């Protein structure tokens, strides 16, 4: 049986500032991996770059969180495994 | 006075009353540091009523009990960690440490408050200048501007007034108390060394 997907619910409940920081951090990592940004990525990043709610501190936490997930797997970081 | 206050409390349950202002200094440090009132606060809501009924309140006695709120004791956030207590009957009286009494006195720093500083330092040798600076750094939020609705207390200005009189030198509270405390707080938040937002802006220009 396919495991249930709660990601939509999780995203809905996620703090909007945290969500924006996570998207921005994911796109930063994408660029660091040598993958180009799409026009959509650039549109989003243009918004985040001037959004005062996307702070360096949140970006740092989101960046570290993504990197840790890549190293250690989802389960230790996600509320719903 | 405290014995009398304890005797007025209802029996059959425990009470806790904090004594602040000059009284703890008078009791623990220098009996000549007298004051017209004993400042107290407690979670016991009927305390003021009991004091007034016994004729011990403001305008009722030469030496009176002023029942206040914990909000009136504006001092270091560490004060509850270093109190002394004394039990009389079913009441525990809490006495804050002299450093916390003195920090609270810095909010106003009248002549009477200056006298308290002089007396405590003369009797105990503390707080030294370094000790007081460290304690004020840990209580840095007391230096924030007052609300519009309250009578202004200017801790920074009071420090500027206190230092030459007590420690014999001029001092700059912003440089010696506020800025170092904020730097410690900022470091504790783990501010990132990497400027991600600037990186984003730079990358978007490419």
Based on the model shown, name its key terms:
heterodimer, A: 81 residues, B: 206 residues, alpha/beta, five-stranded mixed sheet, 9 helices, 5 strands
Task: Give your account of this protein's structure.
The complex is a heterodimer of chains A (81) and B (206). By secondary structure, chain A is mostly helical. Chain A has 4 helices and no strands. Chain A has one domain. Chain B is 44% helix and 13% strand. Chain B has a 5-stranded mixed beta sheet. In chain B, 28% of the residues are buried.
Query: Strand portion of chain A, in percent?
Result: under 5%
Distance between the termini of chain B: 77 Å
Largest sheet of chain A: none
Spatial arrangement of strands, main beta sheet of chain B: 3-2-1-5-4
Q: Compute the number of strand runs of chain A.
A: 0
- Most extensive chain interface and residues per partner: A-B, 17 and 13 residues
Describe what is shown at a glance.
The complex is a heterodimer of chains A (81) and B (206). Chain A is mainly alpha-helical and 81 residues long.
How are the SSEs placed, and which strands pair?
The complex is a heterodimer of chains A (81) and B (206).
Chain A: H1 7-13, H2 16-32, H3 39-49, H4 56-72
Helix pairs in contact in A: 2-3, 2-4
Chain B: H1 2-8, E1 15-20, H2 23-28, E2 37-42, H3 47-53, E3 64-67, E4 84-88, E5 91-95, H4 98-106, H5 111-124, H6 129-138, H7 155-166, H8 173-188, H9 196-205
Parallel strand pairs in B: 1-5, 2-3
Antiparallel strand pairs in B: 1-2, 4-5
Helix pairs in contact in B: 4-5, 6-8
């Amino acid at each position: 049986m396919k495991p249930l997907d709660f990601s939509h619910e999780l995203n809905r409940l996620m703090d909007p500032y945290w969500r924006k920081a996570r998207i921005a951090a994911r796109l930063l990592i994408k660029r660091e991996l040598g993958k180009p940004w799409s026009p959509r990525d650039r549109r989003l990043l243009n918004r985040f770059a001037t959004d005062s709610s996307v702070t360096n501190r949140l970006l740092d936490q989101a960046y570290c969180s993504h990197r840790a997930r890549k190293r250690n797997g989802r389960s230790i970081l996600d509320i719903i495994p | 006075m405290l014995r009398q206050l304890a005797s007025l409390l209802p029996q059959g349950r425990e009470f806790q009353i904090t004594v602040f202002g000059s009284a703890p200094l008078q009791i623990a440090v220098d009996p000549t540091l007298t004051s017209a009132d004993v400042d107290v606060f407690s979670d016991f809501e009927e305390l003021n009523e009991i004091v007034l009924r016994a004729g011990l309140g403001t305008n009722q006695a030469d030496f009176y009990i002023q029942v206040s709120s914990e909000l009136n004791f504006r001092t270091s956030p560490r004060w509850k960690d270093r109190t002394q207590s004394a039990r009389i009957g079913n009441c525990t009286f809490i006495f804050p440490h002299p450093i916390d009494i003195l920090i609270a006195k810095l909010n106003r720093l009248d002549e009477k408050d200056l006298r308290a500083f002089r007396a405590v330092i003369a009797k105990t040798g503390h707080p030294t200048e370094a000790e007081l600076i460290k304690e004020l750094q840990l209580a840095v939020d007391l230096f924030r501007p007052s609300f519009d609705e309250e009578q202004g207390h200017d801790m920074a200005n009071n420090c500027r007034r206190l230092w030459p009189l007590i420690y014999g030198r001029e001092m700059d509270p912003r440089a010696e108390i506020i800025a170092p405390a904020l730097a410690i707080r900022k470091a504790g938040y783990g501010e990132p060394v990497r400027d991600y937002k600037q990186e984003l802006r730079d990358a978007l220009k490419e």
